[in-house]
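Batch manifest, entry 17 of 40.
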Amino acid sequence: MELVAVCDKHLEVARRVAAKYGVPRYYRDYEEMFRRERLDGIVNATWHAAHCEVTVAAAEAGLHVFVEKPMAVTVEECREMLDACRRHGVKLMVGFMKRFDPSLRWIRDEVRRGSLGRVFSINSWYRDCRVHEGYVRAFIDAFIRPPEYPARAYAPTGDRHLDMLLAHGVHHADLLRWMGGEVSSVVSRYYETPSGDYVSTSILKFRSGALGFFQLCGSIAGDWDEGLAIFGDEGTARAEILFPYFKWRSRAVIFRGGEYVSRLFPFRDMYLEELRHFVKCIEEDLEPSPSGYDGLRAQEIIYAIYRSAREGREITIS
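Output type: structure tokens
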């Protein structure tokens, strides 16, 4: 593929990114870029609340779209994006890069093969840590920062539970559904301490009959803690998921037949792999995975978790 143009609402950021990566042209207005450039597709890495607007405009311009997670802020926006891409015959892919972690892909393949037997429990957790910013600063040279972030960039709703679910929980909504199939209902509770720490814990029922939990909490006084555990009547799979900027496979192990089995995969940049997949889908006319539909289903799980915690009842997902 060829990267021919970049766009940012801060023109100086666009200019510096173009210079750093040798991109021929840069813009401040994405609609002008759509008109002037001969594009096949775009990477929509705008802030959450702009995902829908930019995606719909790209679809109307006949461009395929890779959109970062969360797919949008609301379920309705996700449906609008899906509808626009279908009407204009373009592809829509969502940036759930965990699907391109070779260790997690191995676990999923083994679950699908029946290596764990009948799966009855599928669980995951994301526990943010107080040294999170230390991890980010380790990669600070990779970022070209604008003078200011857009208002409501990463807190689009103003509700802390929902904003955390959109920013972080949506990854696991997709991961759990990818591993275990459709989720049929959710029971959730949310608690926030006077000091600002929070915990969201949900019980998920899968259409397969399996039960599982998802816990989102922070900030813990310890190291980054993110993982997956799947239990079947013939085996167990576990994965320790590392901080994503490390671009390193999860540490995964499967217990079956009386022994632990693990696989060593070479270095893998999950962010690069998902973009390669997007390009391949354009070139070979394939349906992306994760698709816009996958993004919508993950969004529905997130909102079911949020509603259950607010209303104190089980929420069914149709």
